[in-house]
Specification:
CATH superfamily: Dehydroquinase, class II
CATH topology: Rossmann fold
Structural class: alpha/beta
Radius of gyration: 14 Å
Number of helices: 5
Number of domains: 1
Oligomer: single chain
Shape: globular
Number of strands: 5
CATH architecture: 3-Layer(aba) Sandwich
Strand order of the largest sheet: 2-1-3-4-5
Distance between the termini: 12 Å
CATH class: Alpha Beta
Helix content: 25-40%
Length: 146
């Protein structure tokens, strides 16, 4: 099984960006934890991060052609407004799990809405870095049952 973990705009700054909201863990540390859990679960996890919306869409298109089994995505701020990203994800035939470290529903009102939610199998948010590991478990289960 192959799972793609996508991280969007500004998430490369985890560990430095708003530690009160996101803690001090870095994206590299999160990716390592997810890959380690993937190994435990018998799943290969590939990680990709970009601050460029077009690059993210291109990587999602490649995931379609590569027949990835599931996608985990923390789109960052794109979650709330990127129709381009939403449309790219809608092309996928595999389960998509939306993930956020913070609880977007308990934050500023503009963060409450996700343009990705209606195409995602589910959304996991509010558990810090653990959100990623929970999302991986959900993705593996969803892929196995698809």
């Amino acid at each position: 099984m192959r799972i793609l973990l996508l991280n969007g705009v500004n998430l490369n700054m985890f560990g430095h960006r708003d530690p009160k909201q996101y803690g001090t863990i870095t994206l590299a540390q999160i990716e390592q934890r997810v890959k380690s859990l993937g190994t435990e679960l018998g799943t290969e996890v590939e990680c990709f991060q970009t601050n460029h919306e077009g690059e993210m869409c291109e990587r999602i298109h490649r995931a379609f052609h590569d027949q990835i089994d599931a996608v985990l995505i923390n789109a960052g701020a794109w979650t709330h407004y990127s129709i381009a990203l939403r449309d790219a994800l809608a092309i996928l035939t595999c389960p998509v799990i939306e993930v956020h470290m913070s609880n977007i529903h308990a934050r500023e009102p503009f963060r409450h809405h996700s343009v990705l939610a209606d195409i995602a199998r589910g959304q996991i948010c509010g558990f810090g870095a653990l959100s990623y590991e929970l999302a991986l478990r959900a993705a593996v289960s969803a892929a196995e049952n698809s």
